[in-house]
Amino acid sequence: MNIKEAAQDLGANRLETFFLITLRQIKPGVIAGGLFAFIMSWINVEVSIFNSTVELVPIPVKLFNYIQYDVDPLFAALSAVTIYVAFGVVFVIDALIGIDKATN
Fold first, then answer.
1. What Å distances lie between residue 45 and 32, 48, 67, 80, 92, CA to CA?
2. What stretches pass through the bilayer (predicted)?
3. How far is residue 37's CA from residue 95's CA, in Å, rounded to a whole number?
4. What's the pLDDT tens digit per position in 39-98?
């Protein structure tokens, strides 16, 4: 018998079982996958270029295009801000759920 079956035997319905058992077990993987995708979208500009459309251009692609064709210190500052945003996301996740809990 597994944990989900035990929860349902003790009276939890399928929705309660999903939120109380399954979601808590997969939460570290979902958080890690989300962080990985977020960070990789900033690192791999090539992948972001292939995933962009004419109407929707990701921020890393815009920064890459501006840095490639213009010399302006504004874009260096924007690049620094994006790094701070990435760190901010990690700190917010740590404050909300704790990275040590997400990795265990």
1. 20, 5, 13, 16, 25
2. 30-54, 74-99
3. 20
4. 777 777 677 777 777 788 777 777 777 777 777 788 778 778 878 887 888 888 788 877
